[in-house]
Amino acid sequence: MNRFLVLNGPNLNFLGRRNPGIYGSKTLDEIVHVLEQQAQALGVDIVCYQSNQEGQLIDCIQQHWGQVQGIIINPGALTHYGYSLKDALIDAAVPVIEVHLGNIHAREEWRRHS
Which of 49, 80, 100, 105 is an active site residue? Predict the structure, then answer.
């Protein structure tokens, strides 16, 4: 069975109460539940993990090295300065999809570049 790693970075554990105008009203648990249902319908397995610490996200990527076919990540603010996270994603040698809940192009200029 195909397995994918779904990573969420800093502050995403506060979804649902963190600036709903930008991030919406769903909690991270609610989002993960929907993702698990969709994965099951597609016949794939997902491993979901959230951390506020870059090193823990890197540890998770390395622990799943060779065991996943892809990574979906919302790195939060680490998008802009998480160079060691970027290196770990490259070293994972699998396709990586970066996602964000808010419209990064409608926010500050520095948020528009990964």
Answer: 100
The residue-averaged pLDDT of 7-23 equals: 90
Of 7, 65, 70, nearest to 44 (Cα)?
70
AA letter at 57: L
DSSP label at residue 2: -
- Respond yes or no: is residue 23 known to be catalytic: yes
Q: Is 80 a catalytic residue?
A: no
Q: Which of 23, 64, 80, 113 is catalytic?
A: 23
Instruction: For 37-52, give the DSSP string.
Output: HHHHHHT-EEEEEE-S
Query: Does the pLDDT value for residue 20 go beyond 90?
Result: no
Q: Which CATH number fits domain 1-46+69-81+92-114: 3.40.50.2300, 3.30.360.10, 3.40.50.9100, 2.30.42.10?
A: 3.40.50.9100
Pairing of strands 70-74, 96-98: parallel
Span between the terminal Cα atoms of the chain, in Å = 31
- Would you mind telling me the total number of residues written for the chain in this entry? 114
